[in-house]
Amino acid sequence: MALSCQKDSYLKELNSKVVCCEKAQCQMIINGKKSKINGFEVILEDTILFPEGGGQPYDLGTLNDIPVLKVTRRGDKAVHFTETDLEVSKDVHIKVDWHRRFDHMQQHTGQHLISALAESIFNFSTTSWNLGEKTSFIELDTPEIKDKDLQQLEDTVNEKILAGLSVTPQLFYDKDDPEWKKASCRGLPADHVGPIRVVRIEDVDNNLCCGTHLSSLSHLQCIKLLGGEKGKKGKTNLVFVAGKRVLDYLGRSYSVEKALTPILNGPLDKQVELADKAIKGLKASQKSCTNLLRDLAVMEARLFNMMVDKPPLYSIHRKEGDNEYMNIIATEIEDDTPCFLTTGEEKGSGMFLLCGPPQFLTQAQKKVMELLEGKGACSGGRLRGKANKLSNRSEVEKYLLNLLSES
Ligand SMILES: [Zn+2]
C-alpha cells in the first residue's frame, strides 16, 4: 500500500490510527555529534510523513503535537520515532513540517528533471545524487561537463519549468506488469513490497521512484546549475539549487558581495581580480617581513657582540619573532654567552629558546620549563619549545642571572 504522502504529496495534515508503539533507541546527530536517544517507534495505519527514500531525506512533523524526530522505512511501513509514547488504537493527528517537505519536493523533482535531460541530450547517466543542506548534487557518469553544455542543460531545464509540465505518479500493482519495466529505473530495493511507483514528467521522463514530488514543474520556480565538480573515479558532481533555494543562494551571494565591495574597494565583476591582487600583495609583504626579521636578528646579535661591558645574560623578547629569528641570534652571539629568547604574546603563550654552556643548561633546564609552563626538548646545546606562561619571563630572567652569579 502506498502512503498518503506518496498518493498526494501536498497533504499537510492527516488523521490516522496508532497501530503499534514500542520502546526503542534512535541514533541521531545532535550538534555534529552522534547520540543515542531513548524513545518510541510508532507505526500508523497511514501517514503523510515520508521516510527516507529515492535520495530524499525523511520528513519532520508532529503526531498529536508530539515532535517526530526521524522517520525510517521498514518494508512498506513508515516508522516514526518520538520521545513520548502514543496509545495503540487511538486516533492521531499528523502534521508535516511543510517548509522542509516542500523544499525536499523542489530539490527532488529538480533532480528528476536535470537527470532526465542530461541523459536525453548528452547521454550522461545519473549514478547517484545527494540532497544537501544548502546545495545538492547529481553524480553524472562523465569525466567532465563543458561550460557550453552546462549552459544548454540549464536553459533546457528552465524552459521545461516555464512550460509548466505536469508531474504525475503512476502506480503498478503487479511486479511483472511489462508497462513499468518500460520506465527508466535502477531496479527495486531488495526489501520492496507493495505497488511499484513510476513518476512521470510530461513529455520528458518516466522514472521509478518512491519519493514525494511536485505536481507541476511550474512549482519548481527555477533551477540554477552551479557547476560541475570532480567526483569519484571518472564522474562529475553537478551542483544545483532549485526553487526557493535559488533565491536563498542569491540572497547570500548578494550579502557577501555587499560586504566585500568596501573591503576590496570595487564592484562584483572586479572582486576576484582585486582579491587576487590583495592576497599576492599580502604574501609579498609577509616575505619581506620575514627577511627583515632575519636581518634584525643578525643586527641585534652584532650590537650585543660590540658591547664593551656585556651583561652575563643576553635576554630578549620579540612578539613577532619566530624560531628562525631565535636560532639566528643564538648562533650569532659570541663567547658562549647564555641567551634567553622568547616570542609570542607577552602575557600569554609563545616560543622560547635557552642556550649557553652545557653545565648552565643542565642546571637551568628544569626550573625554566617549570616557570614557563613549557613543553620542549634540549638538542644541539639549545633548549627550545613552547612556553605557556610568558608572563613569568622576568622571573626566569631573575633566576638565570642568580644562577650565573653563583657559578
Ligand atoms: Zn523521485
UniProtKB/TrEMBL annotation:
<feature type="domain" description="Alanyl-transfer RNA synthetases family profile">
    <location>
        <begin position="42"/>
        <end position="252"/>
    </location>
</feature>
<dbReference type="InterPro" id="IPR018163">
    <property type="entry name" value="Thr/Ala-tRNA-synth_IIc_edit"/>
</dbReference>
<comment type="function">
    <text>Functions in trans to edit the amino acid moiety from incorrectly charged tRNA(Ala).</text>
</comment>
<dbReference type="GO" id="GO:0006419">
    <property type="term" value="P:alanyl-tRNA aminoacylation"/>
</dbReference>
<dbReference type="InterPro" id="IPR012947">
    <property type="entry name" value="tRNA_SAD"/>
</dbReference>
<dbReference type="InterPro" id="IPR051335">
    <property type="entry name" value="Alanyl-tRNA_Editing_Enzymes"/>
</dbReference>
<dbReference type="InterPro" id="IPR009000">
    <property type="entry name" value="Transl_B-barrel_sf"/>
</dbReference>
<dbReference type="GO" id="GO:0005737">
    <property type="term" value="C:cytoplasm"/>
</dbReference>
<dbReference type="Pfam" id="PF07973">
    <property type="entry name" value="tRNA_SAD"/>
</dbReference>
<keyword id="KW-0963">Cytoplasm</keyword>
<dbReference type="GO" id="GO:0005524">
    <property type="term" value="F:ATP binding"/>
</dbReference>
<dbReference type="GO" id="GO:0004813">
    <property type="term" value="F:alanine-tRNA ligase activity"/>
</dbReference>
<comment type="similarity">
    <text>Belongs to the class-II aminoacyl-tRNA synthetase family. Alax-L subfamily.</text>
</comment>
<dbReference type="GO" id="GO:0002196">
    <property type="term" value="F:Ser-tRNA(Ala) deacylase activity"/>
</dbReference>
<dbReference type="GO" id="GO:0046872">
    <property type="term" value="F:metal ion binding"/>
</dbReference>
<protein>
    <recommendedName>
        <fullName>Alanyl-transfer RNA synthetases family profile domain-containing protein</fullName>
    </recommendedName>
</protein>
<keyword id="KW-0648">Protein biosynthesis</keyword>
<keyword id="KW-0479">Metal-binding</keyword>
<keyword id="KW-0862">Zinc</keyword>
<dbReference type="InterPro" id="IPR018165">
    <property type="entry name" value="Ala-tRNA-synth_IIc_core"/>
</dbReference>
<dbReference type="GO" id="GO:0003676">
    <property type="term" value="F:nucleic acid binding"/>
</dbReference>
